[in-house]
Amino acid sequence: MILLLGSVLTACGPGKAAGPVNFTGDARHGAELIRQYGCGGCHDIPGIAGADGNVGPPLHRIGTRTYIAGFVRNSPENMAFWIQEPQKVLPGNAMPSMGIPQKDARDIAAYLYTLK
């Protein structure tokens, strides 16, 4: 039991980004991708330097929200699909399709789920 507790505590130490349980995505790489794709030009995103846009909604605590865009149930899979294909999810919404591949969308979603 002590070994298990120790491994849990070390896995959650400061500076360690962890995405949602049972979801394959790399939260650390997701933070890099958020910078690369310029998501902060439209969104205010905690933990991302210069991500202070005000076109889209701020993404503070996005990992705890019930819905994405007020329409789609918030789950890691739905978040990744929203990032990858926002116009397929909700045609005509303000978020552009940016050609983000599925792997990158999953990594970005993993980072966003660290925002609680």
Protein described:
This is Cytochrome c family protein. With 116 residues, the chain is mainly alpha-helical. The chain is built from five helices and two strands. Strands 1-2 form a two-stranded antiparallel sheet. Strand 1 and strand 2 form a beta hairpin. The N terminus is likely disordered.
How are the secondary structure elements laid out?
Layout: H1 2-11, H2 27-37, E1 67-68, E2 72-73, H3 76-84, H4 86-89, H5 102-112
Antiparallel strand pairs: 1-2
Helix pairs in contact: 2-5, 3-5
Radius of gyration, in angstroms, nearest whole number: 15 Å
Structural class: mainly alpha
Report on the biggest sheet.
Answer: 2 strands, antiparallel
> How far do the termini sit from each other?
27 Å
User: Given the structure, what is the number of helices?
Assistant: 5
Low-pLDDT runs: 1-18
The H/E string reads: HHEEHHH
Question: Features of this protein?
Answer:
metal-binding, Cyt_c-like_dom, metal ion binding, 5 helices, globular, iron, 2 strands, 39% helix, heme binding
What's this, in brief?
This protein has 116 residues and is mostly helical.
